[in-house]
Sequence to fold (186 residues):
Amino acid sequence: MKGFMSALFPEPTDLDRSGDLDAASRIVLGDTLLAQFPTETACRSSNFKRAAARQGLSVARAREYVALARWFSPDMRERIFSEVQVSYTVLREAARDYSRSGMPDHQRWDALRSMIDSAASEGRKRVTANEYRTVIGSRQIPNQASAMPAEAVIRQLERPDVWQAVVDHIVADPASRREVLLRLSA
Fold:
């Protein structure tokens, strides 16, 4: 039962040392690293590797955060961190085109901006990765949770973005509260 309760009400952690940051925190961390290492060459240095380790990140993850911090301008950030939740997966997809849509940067951003505007006008609270991938015409990524053991799925609830998605689901459909609680307690 203790594991269940800690999954429902995670203990505070030092987010600067965690790889499970929400999207905004990841970009802020990227900003911090970008200020110290403003060029691609600097991001390949041993100092960058030590800085990534101090933040509790792999070098690859730290470089990814820097790339996103570089890509998302202040105007873009104002849009993506508005009343509509945009997951880190969507932001990474927009900035890096991981699913290989072949769409140029500005078109991927235009598609995301349009989706955020549509979601806001329709009263929806989030833009999902699958919706975004469909709009940009990229390949869909299968649900990884189906291949995970139950313990790993429960650990995902400790991530702020996952927990927020559960809370958003309950808020959007209050009748689902009982179903969600029953599933969490199973």
The chain has eleven helices and two strands. Confidence is low (pLDDT under 50) at residues 1-19. Residues 35 and 66 are 9 Å apart (CA to CA). The first strand starts at residue 85 and ends at 86.
